[in-house]
Specification:
single chain, 5% helix, Maltoporin, Chain A, 28-stranded antiparallel beta sheet, mainly beta, Immunoglobulin-like
Length: 815
C-alpha cells in the first residue's frame, strides 16, 4: 500500500491540467437529462470540434481542447436546443437547464434511446430496455439473449464467453449462492424491472475478486421523475402452458427526498425433458448394460417480488438511502422418469418413477448507505447490506423397478424402495460492510481506497427416507447436515490518472483474506478448513486515437471459490447406478486475464488471453471408493487456456433500421486428470449474436434477434452447437396511451441441446451416453403479449444504479 501511495504522489507531480469543458444537464424540475449530446463548435464557422454524451447523472466532459473561441451546443430529443455565448479556453458550465419542446406535450415523448449493446474496456453493457423482447420475460431469459452468455438449463449453470465461474450481482450485491440456485432465482425474477445488464470480463479492483469468468451485474430501474408518478405492466402468453405477469411501480420525488416501491407477480407453467441413450458397467445389475432413459418435468412457477426504498439529502453534503427487496418464489414440479436397462444375454429391467415436489424460495435483500461530501472533490461512502435466503424443497417419489418377468428387482432395502420422501432445507445469511474514500487530487488524478468485510453463514439439512417393510427408514448415507461459515476481508486502492491529453491509466490493487469452515454439526466432523490470502492486481491503460476511437490494454486477476454444495460430502440418489455428491478436496480457481481492445463509435474489437489454474467443472462422473456406483460431483481440471476474440458491429440504414452483430470465440485448451486416462483437448468455440430493429410507420417497431453457440466442453462433457431466433413487434400508443408489445421467443423451437459423455476419454464404468435436452421453447415457441403505461409525467430519465455496498465503483471514479 505504501509503495502504491508513493507512486501516486510522483504521478500527481507529473500530471498537469489540460483544457476541458464540463457541465451537467437538468430539466426544469432539476432532474438530470441523460444521453443528450454536447457539441463544441468553432466560433468562426460553427464546425464541430468535439462532442460528448451525458451519462446517467446528466454530466458531460469534453477534453483535449485546443486554444480558441468556441460555442457549446446541447441537443436532446424532447428538449429545446441550447447554445452558449462565445467563450475561450477551458470552462465549467455548472448546471444547464433544458426546456421541454412544447410542441410534443400531450403525446408520448420519444426518448433518446440507448444502443442495445455498449462496449467498455471492462466488458459489455446490454441495455435491455431497448429490446422489444424484454417485456414479460424473466431475468434468466434476457440474460441468455446477452452476448457470450450460455445457460445450461439441464444442470442450471451460467457460462460467460465459454467459461463457468460467473458471479451474478443485482444492483452490485453479490448473490452468494450455488450456481444452480442462482439460476432458479433468476428464472423467477421478472425482467420488467431491469434497466441493463453489465457483462464484466475484466472488472477493476473496486469489485470483489470473486468470479473467475467475470461478473454479471443486473441493474434495476430507478425512476427519477419529479412529483408522484409510476408505471404498470401486464402480460400474458403461452408455450407448453399459460404464462402471465403483472407489475406496478410508484415513485415520489420531492426534490430532497425520493421514495419508491414496486411489486411484480409472475406465473409460468413450463416444461422440459431429456432423453439419454447409452451403456455402462452396472455392478448392482450384474454386468454391462445398455440404457434408455427419459425424464419429463412439468414445473409451475409462481413468483412475488416487492421492492421499497428511499434516498434523501440531509443537507448539501450528506445523502442517505436504503432499500428492501423481498422475493417469494414457489415452483411445484412433477417429474416422470422412465428407463429400460438391457443386460446380455437376456436380462431386462424397467424403472418408472413419479416425483412430486415443491421448491419454495424466500429471500430478503436490504441495504443502507451514507454518502458524505467532505470537501470539493473529496467523498466518503459507507454501505451496509444484509441478505437472507431460505429454501425448502420436500419431494415424494413413487417408483417401480421390475425385471423382465414383472417382479420387483433388487433387494428390499432403501436403494430399491418403491416409496421415498426427500427433505431439503437451506438457510443462507450474508452480511457486508464497506467503506470507501474518494479524493480528486487535481483535474487529472483521482484516488479511491476502501475496505470491505463479508460474512456468510449457510446451514443445510437434507435427507431421504425410504419405505422398507411398511416403515420409512433413513439410511445414514442419505442424511446430510452441514454448516458453512465464510469470512472474506478485503482492502483496495485504485487510481485514475490522465497521463497526457490522450492517455489514461487506471491501476488498482486488492488484497483479500478468506477463511472457510465446513462442518457436520451432528458428527462434529470438520469437512473443510481453508484459509487463503491473495493479492489481485489490475491495470487499464487507454489511449484516444481521436475523439471517437480508443485503444486499451488491461490486466486482471480473479478467483472462483467453491460453493458449500460443491464441498459437502452429501449423497443423493440418481438411481440404482449413480449418486450426486460434493468434493471436499475441491480447490478454488485462480484466473489471469490480459486484454487488448479497440472501440470506435460503437464498433469494437478485442482479444483476451486467460489462464485458469484448477478450473471447476461440475456434474462430472467419477468412481466412488466401493466401485459399485459412480458419483456425479464437481472436479478440478488442471488448467484451461483461452484466446478469445470479440467483435461488435453496429450498423444503421437511415433512421428506420438499426442492426448489431457480434462474435465471441477463439481457441480453448484444457487438461484434466480426474478420469482414468488424463486428457488434453484443444478446440475452437464461439458464439454469434445479432439483432435488427425496424422503425415502421404509425409508431410501430419490429425486432428480430438471435444467437448461436458452437460446440463446447464442460469437463469431459461435450455439448453440440445450437441456436435460437426471436421476434417482436411494438406499438407506441398516442396521447400517453402506453405501449403494446408482442414477442415470440425461439420461433423455430431450436433450443435443443445435445451432449455426450465418453466421447473425450474413458468415463467411470465405461459410460458412453448421448443426451438430448429440450427446454420448453425447444418444444413450443413462447408467445407473449404485453401492455405497459407510465403515469404522472411526460419527461424522465428512467434508470440508474441504487447505491449499495457492492456497487459499480467505476462510476464513482469517472463522475
Amino acid at each position: 500500500m505504501k509503495a502504491l501511495l508513493v507512486g501516486l504522489f510522483f504521478l500527481t507531480c507529473m500530471c498537469g491540467a489540460f483544457a476541458q469543458v464540463s457541465g451537467k444537464l437538468a430539466d426544469a424540475t432539476g432532474q438530470p437529462v441523460s444521453y443528450a449530446t454536447a457539441f463544441l463548435l468553432k466560433e468562426a464557422d460553427s464546425t464541430i470540434v468535439r462532442s460528448a454524451l451525458t451519462n446517467d447523472t446528466g454530466k458531460f466532459l469534453i477534453e483535449n481542447i485546443p486554444a480558441g473561441r468556441y460555442l457549446l451546443k446541447i441537443t436532446s430529443i424532447g428538449y429545446q436546443t441550447w447554445i452558449s455565448p462565445v467563450f475561450e479556453g477551458p470552462k465549467a458550465f455548472g448546471t444547464i437547464v433544458l426546456q421541454q419542446n412544447k410542441r410534443q406535450l400531450g403525446e408520448v415523448l420519444i426518448k433518446a434511446g440507448r444502443p442495445l449493446f455498449q462496449q467498455r474496456p471492462d466488458g459489455t453493457v446490454v441495455n435491455i430496455e431497448s429490446s422489444v423482447l424484454t417485456k414479460g420475460s424473466t431475468a434468466l431469459q434476457v440474460l441468455e439473449r446477452s452476448p457470450g452468455v450460455i445457460i445450461d438449463h439441464q444442470n442450471n449453470e451460467i457460462a460467460l464467453n465459454g467459461k463457468n465461474g460467473v458471479m451474478v450481482m443485482i444492483n452490485g450485491k453479490q448473490m452468494r449462492l450455488p450456481a444452480d440456485q442462482v439460476v432458479t432465482l433468476l428464472n423467477g425474477m421478472s425482467a420488467d424491472d431491469i434497466s441493463k445488464i453489465e457483462l464484466l470480463t475484466t472488472p477493476g479492483a473496486a469489485y470483489d475478486a470473486e468470479g473467475s469468468a467475470g461478473l454479471v451485474n443486473i441493474v434495476l430501474k430507478k425512476n427519477r421523475k419529479a412529483g408522484t408518478n409510476g408505471s404498470f405492466s401486464l402480460s400474458g402468453g403461452y408455450g407448453y402452458g399459460e404464462k402471465g405477469t403483472a407489475g406496478i411501480n410508484l415513485n415520489h420525488n420531492s426534490g430532497n427526498t425520493n421514495l419508491y416501491g414496486s411489486y411484480n407477480y409472475a406465473h409460468d407453467r413450463s416444461y422440459s425433458d431429456f432423453h439419454a441413450i447409452g451403456a455402462e458397467q452396472e455392478p448392482l445389475l450384474g454386468g454391462f448394460a445398455a440404457s434408455d432413459f427419459l425424464s419429463i418435468a412439468k414445473p409451475v412457477h409462481n413468483n412475488h417480488t416487492a421492492v421499497a426504498g428511499f434516498d434523501t439529502k440531509l443537507n448539501t453534503k450528506t445523502l442517505i438511502g436504503g432499500n428492501v427487496n423481498y422475493n417469494n418464489s414457489s415452483t411445484a414440479i412433477q417429474t416422470n422418469n422412465h428407463a429400460v436397462y438391457t443386460i446380455k444375454p437376456d436380462s431386462i429391467y424397467r424403472l418408472n418413477a413419479l416425483i412430486n415436489g415443491v421448491n419454495h424460495w424466500r429471500s430478503i435483500t436490504s441495504g443502507l448507505y451514507v454518502e458524505r461530501q467532505l470537501k470539493p472533490g473529496e467523498k466518503l461512502n459507507l454501505d451496509l447490506d444484509y441478505i437472507n435466503y431460505k429454501n425448502d424443497y420436500p419431494t415424494n417419489v413413487q417408483s417401480t423397478f421390475l425385471d423382465k418377468n414383472g417382479r420387483q428387482a433388487g433387494t428390499n432395502d432403501t436403494l430399491f424402495s418403491p416409496r421415498q420422501k426427500g427433505l431439503s432445507n437451506t438457510l443462507i445469511q450474508v452480511g457486508a460492510i464497506k467503506a470507501d474514500y474518494k479524493k480528486r487530487l487535481n483535474t487529472m488524478l483521482t484516488v479511491v481506497t476502501g475496505i470491505k468485510g463479508t460474512y456468510t453463514r449457510t446451514a443445510s439439512v437434507s435427507s431421504i427416507a425410504s419405505l422398507v417393510n411398511g416403515e420409512y427408514v433413513t439410511s445414514p448415507t442419505a442424511i446430510n447436515h452441514i454448516i458453512m461459515r465464510e469470512g472474506i476481508w478485503a482492502g483496495y486502492a485504485t487510481m485514475n490518472a490522465q497521463l497526457d491529453s490522450s492517455t489514461r491509466l487506471v491501476a488498482g490493487l486488492r488484497f483479500e483474506y478468506s477463511g472457510t469452515r465446513l462442518a457436520d454439526p451432528q458428527s462434529g466432523q470438520l469437512i473443510t478448513d481453508r484459509k487463503l490470502a491473495e493479492l489481485f492486481p489490475n491495470l487499464l491503460l487507454s489511449r484516444k486515437v481521436n475523439n471517437d476511437a480508443e485503444l486499451f490494454l488491461s490486466y486482471t486477476k480473479r478467483i472462483s471459490r467453491p460453493a458449500y454444495s460443491d464441498l459437502a460430502s452429501y449423497v443423493t440418489y440418481n438411481g440404482p447406478n449413480s449418486v450426486n455428491t460434493g468434493n471436499p478436496l475441491l480447490k478454488p480457481t485462480i484466473t489471469n486475464n490480459l486484454k487488448l481492445g479497440y472501440n470506435n463509435r460503437g464498433y469494437s474489437l478485442s482479444v483476451l488471453w486467460s489462464r485458469d489454474d484448477e478450473p471447476i467443472a461440475r456434474n462430472q462422473f467419477v468412481y466412488i471408493p466401493d466401485r459399485k456406483q459412480s458419483a456425479v460431483s464437481p472436479q478440478n481440471l488442471r488448467y484451461r487456456d483461452e484466446l478469445t476474440f470479440q467483435a461488435e458491429l453496429p450498423l444503421a440504414i437511415g433512421n428506420w433500421l438499426n442492426m448489431n452483430y457480434g462474435f465471441v470465440g477463439g481457441w480453448r485448451k484444457f487438461n484434466l486428470n480426474y478420469t482414468q486416462n488424463p486428457v488434453e483437448k484443444t478446440y475452437f468455440g464461439y458464439s454469434l449474436h445479432g439483432s435488427q430493429t425496424y422503425q415502421l410507420p404509425d409508431r410501430f417497431s419490429l425486432e428480430l434477434s438471435g444467437y448461436y453457440n458452437s460446440l463446447s466442453y464442460n469437463g469431459t462433457r461435450k455439448v453440440d452447437g445450437y441456436g435460437v431466433l426471436n421476434a417482436g413487434i411494438k406499438k407506441i400508443l398516442k396521447n400517453n396511451g402506453g405501449i403494446v408489445q408482442l414477442a415470440v421467443a425461439d420461433l423455430l423451437s431450436s433450443n435443443v441441446i445435445s451432449s455426450y459423455f465418453g466421447s473425450l476419454t474413458q468415463e467411470a464404468f465405461n459410460l458412453k451416453s448421448h443426451v438430448v435436452f429440450h427446454t420448453e421453447s425447444g418444444k413450443y415457441p413462447l408467445i407473449r403479449l404485453s401492455y405497459s403505461r407510465s403515469f404522472g409525467g411526460t419527461s424522465s430519465t428512467s434508470s440508474g444504479n441504487n447505491k449499495s455496498g457492492i456497487e459499480d465503483e467505476n462510476n464513482r471514479i469517472k463522475n
